[in-house]
Structure formats: structure tokens, C-alpha cells
Amino acid sequence: MTLLTRLRTDTRAAHQALEDDLAFLSGLTPARYSEVLAAFLGFHEPLEKALTASAAAHRLPWDLAPDTDRLTSDLRGLGWSSSRIASLPRSSPPDVEALPALVGSLYVVEGARLGGQLITRWVGQALGPVPVSFFASDGDARRRFRRFGALAEAVVPDEEADVAVAAANAHFGLFREWLGGALPDRNG
């Protein structure tokens, strides 16, 4: 079984729990969309810094997409000031220091890009034209995810696959926990 298959299979429950929590996107209002983006920024900014530092330390040849920049741009497009954005609470990132943990966390991030395409359509249907650069991402998310899968296979030995899976599950759990605090009323 490939690492990508293991990650997909062994994180299915955590992934489904997060998707269930994301049901708050139904009945979306402009105010709620702003709250969602703010919560995502509070999680993704420290995560992006941790992933970038770990990838550099491991000399991992992976170009991290600028999620923080996209989230900030979307919030500014919704009328948020720089000072308001800067004042948002930030989470503690998952532990991605070890290479398999970095890969496990990147699995969640890169997989979320695929889901972002669906969220982009939901947001468009619910709100019409609003900034969606974070969820829309750029480029071909499927091709990027396949490239990530090949990289993951190349850098994580079979005996360390459990660490990558545990890190991915932890990432899903930390994000759910963060959303629970940042968006206590997930039903709108």
C-alpha cells in the first residue's frame, strides 16, 4: 500500500469529522463567510510558518502555496483593515518538525486544495461574487496533489509511515478544535 493510500485510508474518520463540521457553509451569509476566512487565517498563518521552516530544514523540494496571502487578500476584499486582520487570534501549529510529520501535515493541506474547489462553488452559489482566492487556489490542484503523493513516497520510508499518518490525524484534530473555538456556532 502506498503512503498516499495509507494517509487517505487511515485519516478517513478524522477527515469526515472535519467535513461534517464544515457543514456550517450551508446557509452562508457574507458576515459568516468573513468569520470563516478569519478563523482559517488564524490557523493557516502559524501553520504556514511552521511548514515553511520544516521544509527548509529538511530541504524538501516542495513549493508551499501562499495560503496566508490569499486569506489576507480575501479579507481585505471584504473590507477588513490591515489592523483588524493583524489583531485576529492565531493558533499553535501542529508539530511538523520531523520529516514524516511534515509530510503528514502537508497531506492535509494539499488535500484541502482539492476540497477548496468545491467550497468555491458553494460560496459562489450562496453569496455571488466575493473574494475566494484562498479556496480557489491557483493552478491544477489535482496535478499538484499527485506530485505531492510522489514526493511523499520518495521521502518517507515505509517504517515511518505511521508517523505521517499520526501527524495528519493530529492536524485534522487541531483544525477541528481551532474551528470549534473560533466558530462556536458552526450552524450559522
Q: Report the radius of gyration as a whole number of Å.
A: 16 Å
Low-confidence regions:
none
N-to-C CA distance: 40 Å
The number of strands is 0
State the shape.
globular
Helical region count?
Answer: 9
| % residues in beta strands | under 5%
- Average pLDDT: 90
Name the helix and strand elements from N-terminus to C-terminus, one letter apiece.
HHHHHHHHH
| Structural class by helix and strand composition | mainly alpha
Topology:
Layout: H1 3-10, H2 12-21, H3 30-57, H4 67-77, H5 82-86, H6 99-127, H7 133-136, H8 141-155, H9 161-182
Concise account of the structure shown:
With 188 residues, the protein is mainly alpha-helical. It has 9 helices and no strands.
Explain how this protein is built.
By secondary structure, the chain is mostly helical. The protein contains 9 helices and no strands. The chain has helices spanning 3-10, 12-21, 30-57, 67-77, 82-86, 99-127, 133-136, 141-155, 161-182. Helix 3 (30-57) packs antiparallel against helix 9 and helix 6 (99-127) packs antiparallel against helix 8 (141-155). The longest helix is centred in the middle third of the chain and has 29 residues, at 99-127. It is globular.
